[in-house]
Amino acid sequence: MKIKTKIFLIFFTLTFTLCSIISYIFYRNAYSEKFNDLRSNITSIANSATLLIDEAKHSKLNSEADMVSAEYLDLRTKLKNFRDCYPQIRHMYTMVKTPTNNIWKFIIDTDDPKDEDNDGIISESENITPIGEEYNVAPYKEMKLAFEGPIADKELTPDKWGIWLSAYAPIYSKNGIPTAIVGVDVSAKTINEEKHKLRKRILMIFGISIFLSFLISLYLSNSVTKPLLRVIKTTKLISEGKYDTFIQETRKDEIGDLIFAINEMSKYIKKTIDKLTTLHRTGEILALTIDLMESLRLSMNLSMEILGASKGLILLYHKSTGNISLGTTSGLESVKVLNNELFVEFERLNLKPNTDFISFISSKPEIYSFEDAETIPQLSQAKEWMRKTHTTAFMPFVIKQELRGFILLNIQINDKAFLKTIVNQIGMSIENARLYHEAVVDGLTGLYVHRYFEIQLSTEIKRAQRFGKNLSVLMIDIDHFKKFNDIHGHQAGDFVLKEVSSVIQDTARTVDIVSRYGGEEISLILPETDIYGAKVIAEKIRKTIEEREFIYQNDNLRVTVSIGAASFDKTLPISPEKLISMADQALYIAKQAGRNRVETYGKTNV
């Protein structure tokens, strides 16, 4: 919660509480005073009504038969006319005591029969109360004191006719002895209406007070916290990453010193966070793949985007052979590699490094500009590369103190430390991808190794069984492979194996997994492919190899392959070993049947 809000809430809470207490006390006192005024008023009315009653006539009324007497009619008419002068009076009546304790009886009821609930029937409670109807006054302590003098109820009291505030006054004989009482009733509805009016006035006053409290609290909180809030707001914006936010205020006090310090801090944090954000994003993107070519492509694109380059290339150094190879390029046209020479936009770059160049870079893997290369003799080859590729920065990357490659970009070098961190991240990503590539890819053929094939086959079988998909396997064997070794030498055999592998990779689908199973045997995993589809793919591979010309040392070598295909029943469990065995058996049949053919596992002619 903001400090401004806290201060506002403190002031507002105090004023609100004070207004509430004052309003409540005022309302309670006003209501109490209003209620007491009403009690006093109806008591006076009751007392005044007694002056209209001739006690001698009243004392003659004893039974219901007397309700037609002249005395009854005369007294009732006077009381009724008197009641009508006071709209707030709902009922007026007279009562006398009976010999039974707390049991009184009605004498005169000024009400007329009235269908108050509009049900078409005058009920007992809606009819005139007859002379002699008894009434238990035990629950009403003020009423029991009425013979002692005028009195009113201290609170609303209920009976069978409703809820009322009542007042009573005694009727005295000529001898000054109370013989009866006059009672007047004010309906709770009338009292509640007065109460509601009072409450509305109090609420209006309370609302105005609260509004004034709100304005006063707002003014006080603003005046107290405005300078500090400006600092807090700016600091918060900085913490939210808006580092270009500054406090546009000059003060000659401690807050002014704080403002200056915050502005300087914002500038420094912005520079640092920008770098860290870039490094974090670079690491996240580079971690998306461990494929070597994809890693090189991502590294190049990131370098171009982050550093604002329009041209660049990545070169890989192979310590085992001492050679440099092209990793990838961007923004450069007509890029070709021929016999350790790189041609970029018709310019030739020698990729055969000299010893002094490699030794110097390995010992000092810094960020070098074109100007640096011009002044350092050992960087003459790097200078030549930058000149011909129109790049301005040469950045070697070293992993575990071993040179792994170079990045060349056309950028302006401002922060070498930051550039070096970026290059190290890229170098580590490429190195991880290279290690993974060497672990799962056969060095001669470029196909996946046998172990990778086994892992992937097990995974694909589980996936196919789980989702009810087809899965097939091809086992490919180069026909008469030993002949190439015996007649033309092992180098010819390696040539054939490498070329056949390339043809199979080019012919297979993107989703297919091509592996060197062992020796001259090559295996394919065909996801979501039944035995019919597997035979179509196998026949395409067989025919493509048969028609391909394999030229080795001016000799046209005729190469064919035998292929065994197997698929598994989706409804039955199967192990990777079993599926491989089925494909191997089909391969054996193909070789026995004359080679250069495709056979499928099982008796069904597919």
Descriptive overview:
The chain is α+β, with helices and mostly antiparallel strands and 606 residues long. It has 4 domains: 3-194, Beta-Lactamase (2-Layer Sandwich), CATH 3.30.450; 241-286, no CATH class; 289-438, Beta-Lactamase; 450-600, Alpha-Beta Plaits (2-Layer Sandwich), CATH 3.30.70. It is built from 16 helices and 22 strands. The strands form 5 sheets. Strands 1, 2, 3, 4, 5, 6 and 7 form a 7-stranded antiparallel beta sheet that branches. The two termini are 76 Å apart.
In short:
The protein is α+β, with helices and mostly antiparallel strands and 606 residues long.
Strand and helix layout:
Elements: H1 3-50, H2 55-59, H3 70-84, E1 91-97, E2 103-109, E3 134-136, H4 141-144, E4 151-152, E5 157-159, E6 162-172, E7 178-187, H5 188-239, H6 254-286, H7 292-307, E8 312-318, E9 323-330, E10 335-338, E11 341-344, E12 347-350, H8 355-363, E13 368-369, H9 370-375, H10 380-389, E14 393-399, E15 402-409, H11 416-440, H12 450-467, E16 471-478, H13 481-488, H14 490-507, E17 513-518, E18 521-527, H15 531-547, E19 550-552, E20 555-557, E21 561-567, H16 576-592, E22 598-600
- Which overall shape is indicated by the principal axes computed on the Cα atoms? elongated
Helicity, as a percent range:
40-55%
Taking the alpha carbons of the first and last residues, their distance comes to: 76 Å
What's the count of strands? 22
Q: How much strand content do the residues show? A: 15-25%
Biggest sheet layout: 7 strands, antiparallel
Broad CATH class of the largest domain: Alpha Beta
CATH superfamily of the largest domain: PAS domain
Low-pLDDT runs of 5+ residues are none
Q: Radius of gyration over alpha carbons?
A: 54 Å
* CATH domain topology of the largest domain: Beta-Lactamase
Alpha-beta classification: alpha+beta
> What is the averaged pLDDT score?
84
